[in-house]
Each structure stands twice: as structure tokens, then as C-alpha cells.
Please model this.
Amino acid sequence: MAAHIVFLGPPASGKGTQGRRLAEERGLSYLSTGALLRSALRDQSPLGEQARPYLDRGEFVPDEIMVPMVLEWTNSQAHGCLLDGFPRTVEQAKALDETLGEEVRAIVLHVPDDELRRRVSCRLECENCHRVATEGEGENCPRCAGLLTARADDVAENFEKRLLAFRKLVIPTITYYCDQGRARIVNGMGSPEEVYERVQG
Ligand code: AMP
Model:
């Protein structure tokens, strides 16, 4: 049976870093919905223009936009996939179950708020491949030489709004998976290496 994994957690909890690595090592297709939206914004594509006001305000993009976009992608991933940043609402989780079946498993990264604030204040991401940089990597991505820059939405006010949206919408989504015994909560504190040991289970 194909493995389908979703990574859930507050902003800056390490979903991208851990999700990317797990997908690579398990041979799963990887999609970060946040990175996809940021690329669309940069390209000024129709999706980017639709999503822009929500991202600028630190709000979630509506389910009507997100669900068809992600399901179109997952439908072509028969051998298994890892989603980073989707689902973020119970509606999105239910739509995913309808498409992939209930073998979807959730990995939830838990990190205290103060540590999230510290991480976001110094987070850099590759403009080209969207990999999150580890501290001290310099100005260019060691993988693709793309420029490492701060995310436009990582300013303090926007971040606090995203944290509130996490509490309001993602926590019920985590509860949805927990109630069905399909979630594993992982302590996201420590070095990326230490967290990855726990992610592997
Ligand atoms: P991320 O890179 O995962 O932190 O996502 C950045 C932003 O993209 C979020 O704050 C949302 O505005 C938007 N976004 C990403 N994934 C979703 C989703 N599944 N549902 C709604 N909005 C999303």
C-alpha cells in the first residue's frame, strides 16, 4: 500500500526541513504548499495573485483554492507522497481522506512558542529550491547556489497571526488525526539531526 504522510505543526516548527529529508529517504514525492504559493507569488501567476492578499495578511488561503490544487497533485502520486503544510483545516483533511483513503498518517512537530519566535527571527530560505537554510550557511544555498533570503511573511506581526491561525484551525486538524489514531506527536526541539531521529520513529 502506498504511504502518504502529512506534516503538521506551527510555523517554523521544522516541517520543511524534516519533511523534505524524510521524503527523500523514503522515495516519496514531496510538496510544500507554502513554497508552491510563494513561487506563484514571485511568478505573479493567477494562483499567486489569488493567494497574495491572504499571505500578506498572515491568513490561510481558502479551502476552495487549496483543496483542488493539492488534490490534483496527489492524484498523480500513486507511489506515495509527503505533504508539508497541508492539510491545515479539518475540511482539507477530510478532502484528502476522500482522495487518498484513510491510510494517510500525520507527523506533528511540537515546538514551544518562544522557540518558534527565535527561529523565525533568523530563518533563511533558498529563493530557488525553497530549502530552509541551517544556521551559518552563508549567502547561497549549498545545494543549488540560489540566494538565501528571509521570507517576506516572517515579520513579527505576520508570524503572530499565523500562530493564531494555527491554534484556531490546525489544532482541530491535529485532533482529527489523533482521534482516529493516525497521528504521531514528535518533540521538535533540538538540532535537525536530533529531531530527525525522532521523526523516523
Ligand atoms: P508555510 O510555508 O507552510 O508556512 O505556508 C506559508 C503560508 O502559505 C501560510 O501562512 C498560508 O497563508 C499559506 N498556506 C500554505 N499551505 C496552506 C494550506 N494548506 N491552507 C491554507 N493556506 C496555506
